[in-house]
Design a protein that fits this description.
- The structure is a single chain.
- This protein is an alpha+beta fold.
- The protein folds into two domains: 229 residues, P-loop containing nucleotide triphosphate hydrolases (Rossmann fold, 3-Layer(aba) Sandwich); 125 residues, Nucleic acid-binding proteins (OB fold (Dihydrolipoamide Acetyltransferase, E2P), Beta Barrel), CATH 2.40.50.
Length: 361
């Protein structure tokens, strides 16, 4: 039995359906992420789990028991917000120990457990400081420690790293993974940041317009998106208009503007004549100065139109026939080389058949 089960939950605000017949099962000890663009319903769903909002229909079950009637303070959960929600008049130790104080725990137990929590988030020297004396990352660690000190069944995290700069976010992501593994608490994490979701999660639910588009492990979400929305939302991807010209047991044959005839793996329920797009990730495309015999299953000539140097990688914009453009990403792994190609260079792009996918309109 799943720790938390959401069954056919719907939430409306007037004529707007924020969450539309959503069903999810979250296992004990899992780092589960709700991912999607702003307004997709992920925070509304989290608020219903926490008890701040009530569903219009459906059930929310904890260990198989319906918790719809339980107020937030009676649910064995804790929520960490982007704003940290720390008490400004309390010290770091006071903030972390507050849930235990509210639960009526003995002063000695509070002192011991706060000391353990401070050590866990590496804030022992800051125990007597106040929130205004802390950096953003330190405040966030206080919020995590406060959330975990009561050993909740679920820790709910609503865009908790959204206010931090990129470098600090990366550091906090590593700390979160470590904290979750050590505490053994189930995390339900809300974010719109794809890279963050991919880095942190055991499983991801991609949401769009109140519905779940796909639930899967990060690698499968990225490499095997179930539809065009998921493919486009997660990471960078090239999409070119295509029409299915032939369907066989193993693959689809497509006619693609600027590329000609291209084969991709077969998808169910696709027939000849279907319109859609061919999709391929920039890092799956190889660029060479000339054609290579047998190197790949598809090759096409073009020229470098532009490039974007980003330090560890360079993104090349390649112009193909009929002015069709495609992006390819190459690592800057050769010592002393800032880039491999210059604007105007003739090149040949190639990829393996399994790297490309077809999504119907």
């Amino acid at each position: 039995m799943a720790l938390l089960e959401i069954r056919n939950v719907t939430k409306r605000f007037g004529n707007f359906t924020a969450v539309d017949n959503v069903s999810i099962a979250v296992e004990a000890g899992e780092f589960f992420t709700l991912l999607g663009p702003s307004g997709c319903g992920k925070t509304t769903l989290l608020r219903m789990i926490a008890g701040f909002d009530a569903p219009d229909s459906g059930e929310i079950l904890l260990d198989g028991a319906d918790i719809a009637g339980l107020p937030p303070e009676k649910r064995p959960f804790h929520t960490v917000f982007q704003s940290y929600a720390l008490f400004p008049h309390m010290t770091v130790a006071g903030n972390i120990g507050f849930p235990l104080k509210m639960a009526g725990r003995a002063p000695e137990e509070i002192k011991t457990r706060v000391a353990e929590a401070l050590a866990e988030v590496e804030l022992t020297p800051f125990a007597e400081r106040y929130p205004h004396e802390l950096s953003g990352g330190q405040k966030q660690r206080v919020a995590f420690a406060r959330g975990l000190i009561n050993q909740p069944r679920l820790l709910l995290l609503d865009e908790p790293l959204g206010a931090l700069d990129e470098k600090l976010r990366e550091n906090m992501q590593r700390e979160l993974i470590k904290l979750q593994a050590e505490a053994g608490v189930t995390f339900i994490y809300v974010t719109h940041a794809q890279n963050e979701a991919l880095a942190l999660s055991h499983r991801i639910a991609v949401m769009h317009q109140g519905k779940i588009e796909q639930i899967d492990e990060p690698s499968r979400i990225y490499n095997f998106p179930v539809n065009r929305f998921v493919a486009d939302f997660i990471g960078k991807i090239n999409m070119l208009k295509a029409q299915v010209s032939e369907v066989s047991a193993a693959h689809l044959k497509l006619t693609v503007m600027g590329l000609g005839e291209v084969k991709v793996p077969r998808r169910e329920h696709i027939k000849a004549g279907d319109q859609g797009v061919i999709a391929i990730r920039p890092e799956q495309i190889r660029i060479a100065a000339r054609a290579e015999d047998g190197a790949a299953e598809f090759q096409s000539a073009g020229k470098i139109k532009d490039f974007f140097y980003i330090g560890d990688v360079t993104t090349y914009i390649i112009e193909l026939a009929n002015s069709t453009r495609i992006e390819a990403l190459l690592p800057n792994s050769a010592p002393g080389h800032a880039k491999l190609f210059e604007t105007g260079d003739p090149v040949v792009i190639s990829w393996q058949e399994q790297s490309a996918q077809f999504f119907p309109d």
